[in-house]
Task: structure prediction
Amino acid sequence: MNIKLVYFNFPFWRAEVARISLFIGDVSFEDTRITGDEFSLIKKSGEMKDGTKIPFSQMPVLIINGKTIAQTGAIARVCGKLGGLYPEDIIKAGQVDQIIDAATDINVLIRPSMRETDPVKRKEMRIELSKHDLPRYFAFLDYLIPENNSNYFVGDKMSIADIAIWRLIGWLSSGVIDDIDQNIVNKFTKLKNLCLLINNNEKIKEWVSKTYNEVDKKRIADFEKNLNLPS
Ligand SMILES: N[C@@H](CCC(=O)N[C@@H](CS)C(=O)NCC(=O)O)C(=O)O
Result:
């Protein structure tokens, strides 16, 4: 199988959930990282330089044996299946899907503040997100982690749901987005423990050490420090 994952050169959850699933499953793939200029061309033409069609002109895309698949959730499921991080059981699969869709919802909540150019308005939006919208979603997510010893969202095994939320929260708490509280997850005990569990997974550590630049490695280390602060 010929697999290529196309995204930008940073560890955002939309791409990481797919990259890490393939890495953990030992599935060989081309980890293609495009520049802003290459993306501008894609947006104009709807395709890559080699003629590969990019549906919706958005990233990420997965190209398997020459066929393109867009949309983060669809890509996460395909890579999760290939990497053994997506349950076969139909109910468990639905439980994983609801978390991936929630990650998308959270992303959609944050997007307007990313596009706001007025710094005063942007700050107000971020304060509102930190106070209300994000804690509301985190409380839902925290509630969905069962009270058992595994601490994963579904069953007793890491899935794409855990990786997506770990990376999304890691990004939100990394300080990259001004005015979002870096300790925002700390009072949600199960969610915080989930993030610690994934941060300390040996394969995740290997991936971080292999592919993250020094700035992103430091962000992961700071994330760990913040997660270890008292709730
Ligand atoms: N619905 C898409 C949204 C993907 C998305 O918004 N990707 C961003 C990059 S993180 C993008 O391509 N933005 C440019 C645009 O929408 O024009 C998905 O779930 O994958």
In short: Residues 90-115 form the longest helix (26 residues). The pocket of glutathione is lined by residues 12, 14, 57-59, 71-72, 104 (CB under 6 Å).
